[in-house]
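Q: My collaborator sent me two sequences in one message, no labels, and asked for predicted structures for both. Can we handle them in order? The first one she listed is below.
A: Yes, handling them in the order given. First sequence, followed by its structure tokens:
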Amino acid sequence: MDQKQIIDLLTKMTLEEKISQLLQLTANLHEGTEDQSQITGPMEEMGITGEMVRASGSVLGLSGAASIIALQQDYMKRSRLGIPLLFMADVVHGFKTIFPIPLAIGCSWDLELAEKSAEIAARESAVSGIHVTFAPMVDLVRDPRWGRVMETTGEDPYLNSLFARAFVRGYQGSELAEDNERLAACVKHFAAYGAAEGGRDYNTVDMSERQLREYYLPAYKAALDEGCEMVMASFNTVDGIPASGNEKLMRGILRDEWGFEGILISDWASIREMIAHGAAEDDCEAAYRAMRAGVDIEMMTPCYVQHLPQLIESGRIDESLIDEAVLRILQLKNKLGLFENPFRGADPEREREVLFCDEHRRAAYDLAVKSSVLLKNNGVLPLQPDSSIALIGPFADHEDILGWWSCVGAKEDAVQLGTAMRERVSGNLTTASGCGFDTMTAEQLEKALEAAREADVIVLALGEESAMSGEGGSRTDITLPEVQLELVKHLKKLGKPIAAVIFNGRPLDLHGVFDEADAVLEAWFPGSEGGAAIADLLIGRANPSGRLTMSFPHSAGQIPVYYNAFNTGRPMDPSKTGERYVSKYIDNPNEPLLPFGYGLSYTCFEYGGLHISGSEMTAEQHLTASVEVTNTGTRTGIETVQLYIRDITGEVVRPLRELKGFQRLELQPGETKMVEFSISEDMLRYHHSDLRFTSDPGSFQLFIGPNSRDTLQAAFKLI
């Protein structure tokens, strides 16, 4: 259909039909779906009638080609104007083939592979009938207590923006209208959901507009610049107003300033939640505020369908606002080709061929290898294949390695670490749980000690259950569970070398294991092929190359702790001890245990010969910074060379360092490569107190190194 036909269709719709397009409900409320158990109560509680369900414009959470085809067929038979349903789902880090959690994907620093993971997730979802994914989640996060940190790619706005673009490219491709194996992407959660106070999910967010624009908005904007079709409003307040009813945020910044013309959807029940926030008296006022803000689709509450008619009749809402929203929905349905083919890519036969196929599993394996971060190694890793190894811990033989938001991925399909190790180790391998995730019996402990006594080396597989992170999974204590730390203490007494593998959905306070183990490998929740990837890293078939995209704190008391902080007026000088009246803790360092960008390898890299092409630059004339990187070890390895810049003096204070570029390069033993970065004036811009985005003439420092802490440095001026 062309635009004129879409507008003609809109003019034929009744007000009731238009408002119904704005309602999204879960699949189990629809007649004919497999899960209709106990729906009467929820429908009554929501105030939704069967007619509202049958007329709603989109469906949440249904998957499977046959099921979606059947529901779409039934819906189209009843649709007076032949308007098809949109099917949406949370395809966050894979559909059936599960990739590492997004935080882990960020630690790969591999944009091409991140894009590939989204492309594969789209392909599997599309053949199963899905049209839209609620991804990517690009919220910047500085607080690892927040459970949904597992969905982000980290604490840096520049890097998050690059990953946002990569994921959108992967999901949508370049020709969404013609490519039935792609999905429309929905960037979330707009805005600043990752800044929830205290790291507590759904909590208040309060910051200056300058802070919002400088750090939290760039990744959303990057996703939209890449062509992302949809935006999801966040649960939280922004400047005291819930996002779903925030006109300045949605109409002002998103629509008017950024020119976004796609669909804005609420998060689950977030329109009605304005009542609990204290920003709306009842459902009617919530509907009024959300529509005024420009929210097009209401997810899982009936405020629109119940109250928009009377709001229009009373003149409080103009029907043109409803027309705008419906037109955007119809345009997306048209862009997806649903008017010509309501089933789009849904194909039961191809579904059986594509889901969890070997090609997709290989990509999941590659990303799990590149996402893992070697945090410590005193020579224990890689393991000698003929060693006698005791694999101990709750993750030694456990399938819970997919992580939260694993869509239709099955835990039983995941390659477990113990299984993979048994296939790869030629020496004696003994496994024992030692404890559960948060419980321990005397029998479990004794079996673990017995296995460890007979071994040359102990591999400890520790971590969080997947439910300990993800939505609603906020924690105040981000250490490993106490019983796991007790297990470490008992095994440490044996005097054997210990290599710890940590499975988790957030940066942890690693005390009790980091200081006790000889090596620590951060595995995150590595996905369907996680066990195979981690086993190959442990025995040296693969070389770790991941680098942290969130700082690991010394303790929760430091949070938020992040690399691009300000200096304060009384900065601490590390060379001076005993100073009291400076900005510091008296019981912990200021710095994190492990900084942003950090990660080790089984080889060593040496930096030298930092050179900058000039001492001054202008807006028209760039500088070039170069450095020599040498692999001084005995194995081929991948190094991520990172560029940081500091603006020494700004109209508002500037961070100590800001990531401005990086390059991943593979080096053979003894090989040296020259790495060059171009520095342009636009890299020096920031939001001033009046929100102008510009640069200031003056002095700058440049840093290049393997992480945000250990760098070579030079200076230059912008004139």
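Q: And the one she listed second?
A: Here it is, processed independently of the first:
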Amino acid sequence: MSRDHVQSSERPGTGAEAPFLELLARGASADAYEQPVLLARAEGLPAERIGALEEARRLALRVRAEMEGRRRREAELSALFETAHDLAGLRDLDAVLQAIVQRARSLLRTDVAYLTLHDEAAGDTYMRVTEGSVAARFQQLRLAMGEGLGGLVAQTARPYVTPDYFQDDRFQHTRTIDTGVRDEGLVAILGVPLMIGPQVIGVLFAADRRARVFEREEIALLGSFAALAAAAIDTANLLTETRSALDRLARANEIIRDRSAVIERASDVHDRLAELVLRGGGVHDVAAAVSQVLDGTVEFTEADSAPPSALEASRAEGHAVRHGRDWVAAVAAGGELLGALVLRGHPGLDPVDQRTLERAATVTSLLLLARRSAAEAEQRVRGELLDDLLDARDRDPRLLRERAARLRADLDATHVVLAARLDTETGDADQEAAARRRLWSAASHLAATRHGLAAARDGGTVLLLPLDPGDTATELARRTARQLGTAVREEVTVGASAPVGDLATRPDSVAAAHAEGLRCLDALRLLGRTGDGAAAEDFGFLGLLLAGDRDIDAYVRRTIGQVIAYDERRGTDLVRTLDAYFSCGMSPARTKDELHVHVNTVAQRLERVGRLLGHDWQSPARTLEIQLALRLHRLSATARH
């Protein structure tokens, strides 16, 4: 301030500065500085006084602008310092970029601020961070190089500003970008490049929803934030690369340690398996030893209990295969599947550990073959006992029971005789003989595990198996067909007899049951049901022809037993109604004349029959069986009377 001005302002009686100093002290708005001048004019003060007030107002506004500028620069420097501090302690890149965009929007007092980054894979840029944006389409914008104001900034590596986006033709407008900008309602946009060295990696923007001219200082400030943002991204990339390199080194060290441990485990399992073989260990001992080495649960399962697809793949490839979270290694000898070693819940398996599991499967197959050799002698003894029962050579019950007890069989239990036969003909006698041997071997193994007997006979195999409570001859035949078929990997057809008992005292019943099983076997093959199992009871009235004892009462009970029982309990005439119905050609009208009842009565009785026998009782196959059962029932009733 000049000396003359100071002297002028200090002239007595002026006091023009006082109201403006008060306004400066309380940080009043620029509009408030008009009030003292307006008030002086309203009071009619002299022109000299009003002139002094106007001069004081001008000086006060200059001071106020200077103070405002310093406060703004202080805020800007503070924001830049805070951002640099965030960058120095970088932990979360997204959080740092979000803070930069928020501070840029706040200091530039814009409606929106946002930051885009270059996508090298896609060859364009995408929105990374937005602040103040409300339009979803704008937040998901992607800009190709050279498109829009941002594309121009990225292409030229220079800041660009437009006071009115849609009226500016310096950059390339596209429908996608213009639609996003219009959705957001932006008008004035300032963009500055994010640079790492000479490379532009993105653009930082500040934008308003009204026309606006951005000052040089504002452009410089946004550029400073852009430099910090670029530094943050560069630092994050370096940290990522460093962490990745450290991770790779750590992984390499881990692999080296694991390889060393794997080699030690492989040596350990080799020693353990050799020891097991030398001391005659079993398959479950092998599984337990491998479980310890592989730090998992290894189980031996029979071939029919292992996952079929995985088991077949392992047998074909000669390696353990993955099945879900498990590993399956086939235990095979020649073309025969003996079972599998299954490593449970261990989806990630090192190649050396996989080889350990495969080696254990090989050792298991050797042990099983050794055990089979020992068991074949027992199987021959079982076959000899069954041959004696079939031929009725030894009729002394005590001797039969003693021989069976040594084989852990109980001749006093209820048994079923099953005739099993392969249904594939190769035309090669040697191959067919080998297939029959495999069938006999599999049947002998099944008989031994079920405490039964098995023997090779008539080009097939015959089994004598105990019947469990609640089981039926049909279910046993079908189950046996599946088990033998899985074991030999060919279709096996099985015919079963009706249950027989007291084998020690009635050994001739075994031969009769065998003949019945053979008849069922032949019936299955004639009906095209190869690879299946069945008993006489499965063939309806044909079962009477197949059954050895012609159990007529059992057939009648199975077919119309519920109707007979209903008549006996209720005193009704459903059986007689059925007889009349069939004799009258299944005509309700003629049936009511035969029975001398109303046609509604006939309909009600037939409805009751349907509920007892099932909805398909009038199908051709069922009516044939029901008529035969009715005739047999009538004949048996006549014989009793």
